[in-house]
Structure formats: C-alpha cells, structure tokens
Amino acid sequence: MRIASIKALEILDSRGNPTLMVKCRLEDGSVGVARVPSGASTGKNEAVELRDGDRRYFGKGVLNAVRNVEDEIAKVLVGKDAYDQIGIDKLLINLDGTSYKSRLGANALLGVSLAVAHAAANSLGLPLYRYIGGTNAKTLPVPLMNFINGGKHADNNLDIQEFMVTPKGIKRFKDRIQAGSEIYHTLKGILKSRGLSTGLGDEGGFAPNLRSHREALDLLVEAAEKAHYRMGHEVFLSLDVAASELYDPQSETYRFEGEELGREELLRIYEEYINTYPILSLEDPFSEDDPEGWRLITSEFGHRVMVVGDDLYTTNPKLIAKGIEGNYSNAVLIKLNQIGTLTETLEAVDITHKAGWKTVISHRSGETEDTTIADLSVATNSGWIKTGAVARGERTAKYNRLLEIEDELGL
Ligand code: PGA
Ligand code: ZN
C-alpha cells in the first residue's frame, strides 16, 4: 500500500511550546496522524530535536522540521510501501545521514515514522497495538503514576523529579486507574488540609514545597492508606530521581536536599528508602556520567527493586547493549523521541527483553494528545508504562486509550 502524501504542521505541546504534527495519507485514502513529544530533563545522547532558533516562540519554533518533512522526506517516501516500516525507517535514517538525526531533526523523523505506522494500521483495519505487536499483543501495563513533581518539572524545592504510585498488586487495568484516581484526590485533600500547595507540575502531579523527600514519600503512603489501598500489597512507590540533573562531574557529587553527596552517601539514602517504603522501582538514581554508581546500586539492590535507566541509555540499542554487558541496571525506560524511529525503538525493547530486563514505556514531560505509547506498551507486552498523573488531558489521553484497549481485548 503506497504512501500518497505526507504533511506536517506546527502545533503546541502541553507546556505551550511548538511541536510537530505529521499526517500521512495512503493511496487507499487511509490516514495516520502522529504528534511528537518533548523532554525537559534530557539525556545528552538523545537524538536531536530540531528547533528554529529564531525570534518566533523564543527560538523554539519547528518550521524547519515541518519543511524537512514536506520537502525532503515526502519526496523520498511518497510511492513507498507503508507496510514496510523497517524499510521506511531505514530510508529516514539514511536520508538524515547523521548519528543523532540532527540534520532533518529527530522530531521530523519520529513524526513521519509514527504517522506511517498509524496509516498502515488504519489501512489494514487494525488497532495500532495489533499492527505492531501481532496476535500476541495482550498485556495491559502497570502504570507508574506521577503524583508529586519536583526537579525540572516543578518550581518547588524537591530535587527528586518524580514520586510515583504503582498499583502492581491490582489485576485489572481499570481498577489500577481507579486506585490511582482515588489516591490522587485523597492526596489533594491532605495537601489542602495542611496548607500545602495543590498547584501542579508539568506531568500533572502536585508540586508542593516540602521539608524533605521523605515527607513526599510519607504523603503518598498516607494518601494510599486513607483511600483504603494496602501499601506494599496493592500499591507500591516508584521514584525517578533524574540524577543527571543533580550531578557535578567535577567533584563527582550530587546536590541533594541542600547537601553535596558522594555516590556512596547517596546509595545509603536509597538503601534507607528501600528499607522504609515499598519501593518498586528507582529510575536514574545516578548520573548518566557515573557508571560506577549504577553498578553499585544494581549489584546491591537489583534483586529488590527495578533499577531503570533513562538518561543513561536514551533508548539507544547500542548504549543498552553496553549497559547489559556492564550490569548497569535491570530495566530500561523507552522513549520514542530519544531515538527517533519506531523500528529503532522496537529494537531497543527487544534487546532489553532478551537480556531478561524490564522495559517501561514512557511519555515526555512535554506531551500532546497523541496516544501511540499506550498502544506501544501493549504491542510489546512491556508490562509497564509511565505517563504522568491521572489528570490533565495529555496524560489521561494515554490512560483512556489503555482503558479502551482493555475493553476491546475483553480482559
Ligand atoms: P523529560 O522527563 O520528559 O523531561 O525528560 C521524563 C523523565 O525524565 O523520565
Ligand atoms: Zn527519567
């Protein structure tokens, strides 16, 4: 089924910054649409987001990326077989010709890659998860729901970026979402009653100023129990420290709760958390520039928690292979726009699962109403998804899509 046209448009993401929408039309009239997300606490090896750097939108415009899609990319892809995703993505990679997709822009490439996949699925009359994952795509993920925001995603005093509630002990997806929503609203009530801010961070979690990170963890435990969910049985806690943002490579220390900590001191704080709270996963506990920290935490605590690499791997199959070789972690965060095509993302998932590690399919802090990652999590049978609070349209779009898939699968 041949591609008839590819169009792009500059639209807004959830932070109000420009991003790309790409529309792919096939010769049978089927259409696929994709919208590209954008991160704030980015890893240094991420594929390059092409921004105009001129006066529009404070330099953040994406009109050059739009032009790259409609001129250069469309010229090569029109007439090509939309069912050949691997071939399409290879063409995109070769056409760009750089190692970080900086010439045409990873935002341009990803928009096209996903729009083609959506169009192909529509043309075959298949939901996207079925088109990508085949007949064995059936696992609804456990959501890591971000209820307290800090770090670069909020203007409060918390260094840790994400405090998440994870309903691993609840079987059905819709019951996991119900638990999330009830805990989220209970948390809001507790914050309000203590005179703490109920303003939100970028991913829809609350962003109060607190005395310590432990206070944030205590609040989540309190909210879950007050909402009648059993901590450590039905619901667990997960953290994304985003420690690359806290690291000073010169002194090899981490800025944490007003102190400068060495990696061993930070490790002992994690030990305390793991021993005190039902912690299920720790993402980016150390900097992407501190492999020694990763090796230490994985060898000491890898049997008790998921140690998830985000900045460390940037969804790059080569970097993940290196991590598997060096035992840096036991799980990988998967973000489509860190690598820039669907095929490479599926490759990243594949090598991670083959090593016996877990994947967590993830949104970005800057999102849109696009729901591709919901389908991707089911298609890959990942088992885990991270897509923010159970509030704000760009986050609930993914949860709502998963509710729809669960219903469709009759699970
Ligand atoms: P980002 O944050 O989208 O701002 O990079 C998400 C994360 O660090 O997991
Ligand atoms: Zn992260």
Summarize the structure.
The chain is α/β, with parallel strands linked by helices and 411 residues long. The chain has 13 helices and 14 strands. Helix 5 (173-193) packs across helix 6, helix 7 packs parallel to helix 8 (291-301) and helix 9 runs parallel beside helix 11.
Descriptive notes:
With 411 residues, this protein is α/β, with parallel strands linked by helices. It folds into two domains: 3-125, Enolase-like, domain 1 (2-Layer Sandwich), CATH 3.30.390; 135-409, Enolase-like C-terminal domain (TIM Barrel), CATH 3.20.20.120. 40% of the residues lie in helices and 18% in strands. The protein contains 13 helices and 14 strands. Strands 4-5-6-10-11-12-13-14 form an eight-stranded mixed beta barrel, surrounded by six helices. A three-stranded antiparallel β-sheet has the order 1-2-3. A three-stranded antiparallel β-sheet has the order 7-8-9. The longest helix is centred in the middle third of the chain and has 21 residues, at 173-193. The model has no long low-confidence stretch (mean pLDDT 98). The structure holds 2-phosphoglycolic acid and zinc ion. 2-phosphoglycolic acid is lined by residues 39-42, 240, 242, 310, 362, 364-365. 2-phosphoglycolic acid binds at residues 39-42, 240, 242, 310, 362, 364-365.
